[in-house]
């Protein structure tokens, strides 16, 4: 049975402003919601799923007028790894110059031009991958990598100040396991989850398993989200996730993602492996959609 979603829920889950949804409806005849007895727009599960992917593709620079005409499988096949919107040579030069002001101004202008969500997908994620590769190959000094990391943290934290949802859903705990020191991945995850309406509790990096279990119980979280960078061995990550899953209340979901997982030829019961940042947003949309359907069923007099 299809779910019924009002325009507020669709806007929150998909990340598309209500006014833009209405404009697309007028301009492109999509989405084409039905109306309830009060004349309010009602969207189906299929429409919501398609809108989530359309917004992700728009973030990648695609035109919505062409996207709305395509079916969901074709839209999914169009998703690509984000390409850096700052010239890589310019980025390298700025990092090596030691000019913190110039580096800050460059990324701040990108943030203002794109908005936070698109900035993360189109600038921060590929730039962070580029910096990580350069550092691993010995092309960047430690202080240059640290300068980039702290600059990005400050930019995103400042922008996130207006996106705090104390009563958002789901309640997500963010951390890394012992041995995983990279925190920028967590910051990108935190930003996208908050933008999607989730309540986020971030504990930083390298949290012992016992503390993860106790914190998840104390804060009554719905999800534990863990990030594993490319420097973390995949086999070690899988062993740790299997052990952690056995320690955690079965009702709490575990989301795991990051560059450590270079293949998907594995499964762990109770652990969802997310395919990049777009995979994170799809998991969030699915959780919120399922939660909304559960609440509607619970409230229904017919059970």
Would you kindly provide a written description of the structure presented here, covering whatever features stand out?
This protein has 303 residues and is an alpha/beta fold. The chain folds into three domains: 7-80, Multidrug-efflux Transporter Regulator, Chain: A, Domain 2 (Orthogonal Bundle); 88-160, Orthogonal Bundle (Methyltransferase, Methionine Synthase (B12-binding Domains), Chain A, domain 1); 171-295, Rossmann fold (3-Layer(aba) Sandwich). It has 13 helices and seven strands. The strands form two sheets. Strands 4-3-5-6-7 form a five-stranded parallel β-sheet, sandwiched between helices. A two-stranded antiparallel ribbon has the order 1-2. Helix 12 (234-247) links the parallel strand 5 (223-227) and strand 6. The model is unreliable at 298-303 (pLDDT under 50).
């Amino acid at each position: 049975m299809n779910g019924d979603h009002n325009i507020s829920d669709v806007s929150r889950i998909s990340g598309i402003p209500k006014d833009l949804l209405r404009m697309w409806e007028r301009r492109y005849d999509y989405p084409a919601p039905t109306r309830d007895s009060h004349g309010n727009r009602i969207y189906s599960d299929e429409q919501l799923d398609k809108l989530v992917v359309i917004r992700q593709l728009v973030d990648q620079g695609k035109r919505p007028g062409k996207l709305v005409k395509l079916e969901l499988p074709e839209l999914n096949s169009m998703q690509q790894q984000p390409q850096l919107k700052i010239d890589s040579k310019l980025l390298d030069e700025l990092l090596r110059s030691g000019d913190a002001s110039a580096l800050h101004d460059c990324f701040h202008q990108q943030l203002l031009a794109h908005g936070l969500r698109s900035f993360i997908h189109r600038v921060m994620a590929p730039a962070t991958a580029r910096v990580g590769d350069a550092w691993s190959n010995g092309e960047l000094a430690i202080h240059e990598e640290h300068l980039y990391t702290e600059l990005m943290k400050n930019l995103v934290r400042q922008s996130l100040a207006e996106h705090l949802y104390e009563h958002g859903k789901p309640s997500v705990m963010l951390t890394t396991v012992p041995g995983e020191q990279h925190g920028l991945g967590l910051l990108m995850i935190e930003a996208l989850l908050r933008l999607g309406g989730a309540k986020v509790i971030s504990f930083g990096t390298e949290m012992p398993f016992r503390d993860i279990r106790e914190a998840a119980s104390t804060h009554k979280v719905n999800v534990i989200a863990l990030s594993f960078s490319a420097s973390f061995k995949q086999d070690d990550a899988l062993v740790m996730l299997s052990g952690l899953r056995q320690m955690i209340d079965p009702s709490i979901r575990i989301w795991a993602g990051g560059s450590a997982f270079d293949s998907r030829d594995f499964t762990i019961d109770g652990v969802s492996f997310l395919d990049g940042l777009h995979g994170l947003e799809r998991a969030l949309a699915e959780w919120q959609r399922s939660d909304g359907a559960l609440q509607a069923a619970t409230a229904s007099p017919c059970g």
